[in-house]
Amino acid sequence: MITRRRALALGGVGAAGLAGAGAALISRGGSEAVTDAVAFTGPHQAGIVTPAQDRLHFVAFDVVTKDRERLVRTLREWTAAAARMTAGLDAGEIGAVDGMPEAPPDDTGEAIGLPASALTLTVGFGPTLFRDATGKDRFGIAGKLPAALEPLPRFTGDTLDEAISGGDIAIQACANDPQVAVHAIRNLARIGMGTVSVRWSQLGFGRTSSTATGQATPRNLFGFKDGTRNLKAEQEDLLREHLWVPDGDGPDWMTGGSYLVTRKIRMLIETWDRSSLAEQEAIVGRHKGTGAPLGAAGEFDEPDLTAVGADGTDLIPATAHVRLAHPDTNNGARMLRRGYNFVDGSDGLGRLDAGLFFIAFQRDPRTGFVPVQRSLAASDEMNEYVRHVSSGLFACPPGVTGGGWWGDRLFA
């Protein structure tokens, strides 16, 4: 019987042999059991329509080398390590404790004994990877820059901190154990030392969206159900229309991929908590308890944007979040949301530094995120209680197949 995080070390298996690693057998209390691993390979990257896990560690890197071959080598090494870690194994073949005592181990070791915890690792490339601030082609890939990867506009009310925005490469680690997610990012940063440096990172807990029909709708830190109308993995027709980049819709290397938008949204928790229930529900446009739209009984009832009350006013106010974010208000725009709550301590004045780390995947941010956020920024009553402090946009290529690696079609 072999233990977790030593299986591949014993067999010397590389990244190409990991396609079926998610179904490997491991030792748990003396009996065999199938791991809770999510398949790493496939037509689309895991961590997008994968049922949303409970924990997040998101990181954005700056590429600090000018050597294209070194960057490619790092992407290859990252792919091999990602495939191993998502299968519940050490980042390297030797592992955390079996190497030469005189050399650093090729895994940091804090995940020894932990299950895979449904870990997914999703990579995306930012616009600055293609061209620097002067417009110079950094790695010979400027000609492959997708038009959809144009920088996001600055929206009304944005208070963005550039130090925690943007980045050349992003990696999203999601898992059901925070230590597994942190371990994954830590080891990728270690492997990439000298090629990349961490620009910013974000921990998250308590998913704020469901991405599968079997998941209950979670709540955000305002106490409301969040993501009721989110796209789901089972809605394949809607995913083809709103999520996946089709053939011919941009450069070939993005076919089957998706575009990732991140926004760190600080919630003014203390101010919100002093607002009446009626005011909170009017701002959101839903009942706090059931999640039903105002004027409806069930959470999944369609919001009636034409309904009026006995006094002749809209049941769902014109400035309600639900109305302004609705596809009917935004020419049918839809996204797959995958955000998380965060609490980063206090701001030194006794106020929580907390809120929503918004994550959304879409076929094209110009027709997905941008029009919705413009609508919200202009009129959403919730703006009194939130501050957008960071922003990011990344192109996520399709999944790894046939022994490939992250970015293989981009750097071909």
Automatic annotation (TrEMBL):
<dbReference type="GO" id="GO:0020037">
    <property type="term" value="F:heme binding"/>
</dbReference>
<dbReference type="GO" id="GO:0004601">
    <property type="term" value="F:peroxidase activity"/>
</dbReference>
<keyword id="KW-0349">Heme</keyword>
<dbReference type="GO" id="GO:0033212">
    <property type="term" value="P:iron import into cell"/>
</dbReference>
<dbReference type="GO" id="GO:0005829">
    <property type="term" value="C:cytosol"/>
</dbReference>
<comment type="function">
    <text>Involved in the recovery of exogenous heme iron. Extracts iron from heme while preserving the protoporphyrin ring intact.</text>
</comment>
<comment type="similarity">
    <text>Belongs to the DyP-type peroxidase family.</text>
</comment>
<dbReference type="GO" id="GO:0046872">
    <property type="term" value="F:metal ion binding"/>
</dbReference>
<dbReference type="InterPro" id="IPR011008">
    <property type="entry name" value="Dimeric_a/b-barrel"/>
</dbReference>
<keyword id="KW-0456">Lyase</keyword>
<dbReference type="InterPro" id="IPR048327">
    <property type="entry name" value="Dyp_perox_N"/>
</dbReference>
<dbReference type="Pfam" id="PF20628">
    <property type="entry name" value="Dyp_perox_C"/>
</dbReference>
<dbReference type="GO" id="GO:0004325">
    <property type="term" value="F:ferrochelatase activity"/>
</dbReference>
<keyword id="KW-0408">Iron</keyword>
<dbReference type="InterPro" id="IPR048328">
    <property type="entry name" value="Dyp_perox_C"/>
</dbReference>
<dbReference type="InterPro" id="IPR006314">
    <property type="entry name" value="Dyp_peroxidase"/>
</dbReference>
<protein>
    <recommendedName>
        <fullName>Deferrochelatase</fullName>
        <ecNumber>1.11.1.-</ecNumber>
    </recommendedName>
</protein>
<keyword id="KW-0560">Oxidoreductase</keyword>
<dbReference type="InterPro" id="IPR006313">
    <property type="entry name" value="EfeB/EfeN"/>
</dbReference>
<dbReference type="Pfam" id="PF04261">
    <property type="entry name" value="Dyp_perox_N"/>
</dbReference>
<keyword id="KW-0479">Metal-binding</keyword>
<feature type="signal peptide">
    <location>
        <begin position="1"/>
        <end position="21"/>
    </location>
</feature>
<feature type="domain" description="Dyp-type peroxidase N-terminal">
    <location>
        <begin position="45"/>
        <end position="205"/>
    </location>
</feature>
<dbReference type="GO" id="GO:0030313">
    <property type="term" value="C:cell envelope"/>
</dbReference>
<keyword id="KW-0732">Signal</keyword>
<keyword id="KW-0575">Peroxidase</keyword>
<feature type="domain" description="Dyp-type peroxidase C-terminal">
    <location>
        <begin position="217"/>
        <end position="400"/>
    </location>
</feature>
<dbReference type="InterPro" id="IPR006311">
    <property type="entry name" value="TAT_signal"/>
</dbReference>
